[in-house]
């Protein structure tokens, strides 16, 4: 099978007369790399085609291949030329800047860009209409009316790589399909009129949705109090084995309906139960998850599948070194028994209220070559605390990806090292806003990461807790609020490609995923170009 290579050709040296230019292919991917140099005349289509044929003959699938031509050289006195050159360089250096579009993509891009600029320019004059600056829970319905959002919803978005199992499904489904089941009982205290408003009260307990979220959740700590309370309730609701299976199947369905083809999710692997008292421990829970994923794949052959990241809760003054050893032993057993379904290990919890990674360096360094880490790190606004310095330990421990990484811009050496190691950051815009790490998404630190084409993916985190569903809402917020007004379809396409590159899939699985995604992308472009109305 040909080796899947994601690459780009970058100019290394040019001769002023433009006759001969040396290019270097620099392939960037996980688990796969190749580097060769070729000389091609810059203005010769024949030689460029010969280069492509040479690569194909050698068994390489080129995805995507972009040949950069020399940039325009400006006279030192030509202000406007230099200004245009700087803007052009910024755009080409940003996320997706080294992708090329075919004529059909250019046509679709023109529509998307027009819709985006119209929406943003209208909001520039009336900022009440700029939804990324508002709490998502207040503007979700407005976002759904956006024509940009409707196009993003149609788009094949690749994979979700950062989310948590018990919060994967919309609260609407849980309310309508779980809370009305036989044998389910909920005890609510201290309300004599509970009979009249029990349905409303139950629904309120299932999510963070409220009329005045910025007042109710005035800071990160208050937001996390409600956040953890919901998780506690969901664990009691969803760990009945039949409900657990239905819930996970629905999670896959909601992602599939939103044009997501693959999932990696964090899970504590909670104990499940039957009404007769039978219990299912970690390995059984993994097996049940795997069976549901395989059933969904059989029902939807163009869905690639799912993998689990074992993510026990880390609580300050509670998680001990001996407990970490126990988790690691469990992780190794999971990897051995479920090699195709198991991705790796993480520790989760409120980062300001958990033990720092540095406390467990001794235990974790012993298995860095046996298991993959996917550490949450830097999910904080603080600077100079254990919470932001977790980024340092995550990178030194060779984490495969960084969850959130909101504080990484405050640590330029860590950012530099992470980039050298090609460690992507999992950005979750709506989660960061709802949990009060950022209020206005124009100020989200990922803006710099997008501008500098840092390895990054966009994901949805605890999507069901704030009335979201699938991945489209987070893509919309990233595209409209965090990226430049001038960002077009290229960074969206790159985000989808990145989600495949930086997944825990093996090479063959990535090949298959990219093939399916590519076909869906072609179909998406065709749909956009044939739209009669939105």
Task: Report on the architecture of this protein.
The strands form 5 sheets. This protein has a 4-stranded parallel sheet. A 4-stranded parallel sheet has the order 12-13-14-15. The protein has 20 helices and 15 strands. It is of the alpha/beta class. β13, α15 and β14 (425-427) form a beta-alpha-beta unit. Helices cover 46% and strands 12% of the residues.
Compile the SSE list and pairings.
Blueprint: E1 3-5, E2 7-14, E3 21-27, E4 35-40, H1 45-57, E5 60-62, H2 79-93, H3 103-125, H4 136-145, H5 147-154, E6 158-160, H6 171-177, H7 194-205, H8 213-216, H9 220-238, H10 241-257, E7 260-267, E8 272-273, E9 279-280, H11 282-299, E10 305-310, H12 321-337, E11 342-345, H13 361-365, E12 376-377, H14 386-396, E13 402-404, H15 412-420, E14 425-427, H16 429-434, H17 446-451, E15 456-458, H18 472-482, H19 489-501, H20 507-529
Parallel strand pairs: 1-5, 6-7, 7-10, 10-11, 12-13, 13-14, 14-15
Antiparallel strand pairs: 2-3, 3-4, 8-9
Helix pairs in contact: 3-20, 5-18, 10-11
